[in-house]
Amino acid sequence: MIKACLFDLDGVIVDTARYHFIAWKALAEELGFEFTEKDNERLKGVSRMRSLDILLEIGNIEMEQEKKEELATRKNDHYRSFITQMKPDEILPGATEFIKELKENNIKIALGSASKNAMTILDRLQLTDWFDAVVDGTKVSKAKPDPEVFLKGAEELNVLPGECVVFEDAEAGVEAALAGGMKCVGIGTPDVLGKAHLVVSGLHEMNFDKLSKL
Fold first, then answer.
1. Can you tell me the distance from the alpha carbon of 105 to that of 90, in angstroms, rounded to the nearest whole number?
2. Do 108 and 31 lie in a common domain?
3. Residue 196, SS3?
4. Smallest Cα–Cα separation from 26: which of 99, 76, 64, 61?
5. Residue 146, annotated ligand binder?
6. What is the torsion angle, in degrees rounded to the nearest 10, for the CA atoms of residue 12, residue 15, residue 17 and residue 18?
7. Model confidence over 161-214: pLDDT tens digits?
8. Which residues are catalytic?
9. Which of 144, 212, 101, 106 is nearest to 8 (CA)?
């Protein structure tokens, strides 16, 4: 029996990918090279420091760890300046309606995101009060596909992993859900998220009936 739903944030509830892209692009320009949307695909579902390593690899730049930390902070400063301007109309189609339906059916709800900015985004979108638990990058140390973020979410909701359904848009996130012994709904396309139990293009295609049949 399904008792809880755990949601990734970026690409599932809101699309902050473009803000990440603009921030990484700005950093690349400061370093003297171009960062394209195609390059940005390599960063999807990847931690900030690993993303920086990929960025530097694209720019053929090597540097010490201390300097990398400075650059990662600078990128995050760029990103935060964008997300603090976000508005509720940026919530992806169907997300609010589906979460409301889950609440009406007594399904617990948690956020499971690697982002350390998750609370800022939820506050800006006026969604914070909808979540029974928020597990973000400030609470976990292991990146997806490690299931830590989702297992901690289940723990905070006081439910078993097998009673949870995870909503994810990244392959690493789907793998994390499965590794944690949870059902998974992929948000995207079957060619990328084929390991998920169900794949939909967005939460506007979800309802409680579909969830119950998983």
1. 25
2. no
3. coil
4. 76
5. no
6. 160
7. 999 999 999 999 999 999 999 999 999 999 999 999 999 999 999 999 999 999
8. 8, 10
9. 144
Of the residues 83, 99, 114, the one at which a domain ends: 83
Q: Is 37 annotated as a binding residue?
A: no
Q: CA-CA distance, 176 to 11, in Å (whole number)?
A: 16
Does 114 show up as a binding residue in the annotation? yes
Contact 7, 13 (CB under 8 A): yes
Looking at residue 192, what DSSP letter applies?
Answer: H
What's the structural domain count of the chain?
2
CA distance 146 to 151: 10
DSSP-derived pairing of the beta strands 133-135 and 183-187: unpaired
Examine the domain organization and report whether 197 and 113 are in the same domain.
Answer: yes
| Together in a domain, 162 and 66 | no
Does 141 appear as a known binding residue? no
Query: Which residue, chain included where needed, has tokens 């009936």?
Result: 209
**CB 86 within 8 Å of CB 123:** no
Output the pTM of the full model: 0.86
